[in-house]
Amino acid sequence: MEVFTAASTAISCLLLICNLVGNVLVITVIQRNKNLCNANTLLLSNLAISDLEFAIQVFINIILLSYNTAQNSVSHFMLHALVSIYTLVALAVERFFAILKPFVHLARVNKSLLCKVILVIWIIAGVLSSPGYILQTTVVENTTGKNITVNATRFDSGWIATLGTIYALILLVFGLTLPSALIICCYSRIIYHVWFNADANRATNVALLKSRCKLTKLFILVTIIFIITWTPTFARDIVTQYFVDSKNAWKFELTALMFGLAGSTANPVLYSFRCPRFRQEVIKLLTCRSCRRRRRPHVSVFFEVNRSRARAAVESVSVSLRS
What is the pTM of this model? Predict the structure, then answer.
């Protein structure tokens, strides 16, 4: 038990550090470079902010759950989990229109529309996560001696358990099942369009074929990581209640939380750092090249002024010698 607790703490610390570094770099690079600000990067910024807050809340829950302390309310990190998931769905839909319907994408998808979409995402996530502040289990007692006290209302424990199960099923449907179906539908349509439309059948360029393979692998990888990392987070309440005994329930909860933390840590790599232009901006930011480039024009102007003065002095001397 102590080995599992120490290992889970070490892994969660490493994931938290990677999450903080990756998402902070995403937010900083997008904010510092106005040429990167577009409809797509608005969603990436929102994803980075929600992943950052989700990682901090989940890490707190992992530490409290590992060391026999009171657990935080699930709704604190469920809000940010739902925001991250719905932002990933919005990114899939945005890619769908950008590739399959480019004229509609250029005409209608702009910053104003994406700001409204982000606002709707936060509202829906807040509505879905708000019942969690009320429906909390009173005391979960494991045979291993772990007692986890959480916030509870003064209702009958049977009703609380029943409503908690219904709420967990609602989160499973609207937080995982429907978003997964939308992501799979969008990315599968894109892959089918890239490989089997009329223009794709006529194309024989090797570079184009490589780009298709790369795009297909990326979309498949994104979908698989999304399903694997988020399924334990939304299924943990049902699994611990019906399928896992009390001795191993807290271990499954820790594992589920770490899977969710790993998924939020992978998002900056999958959606931002894979872009070569974004990697270049990160390198510039870390090596302070942007600061040096801002100073060079002033130095060059200084030397140009000195050169013009030197030329004027030489011309004046030559004129005086001729006279």
Answer: 0.77
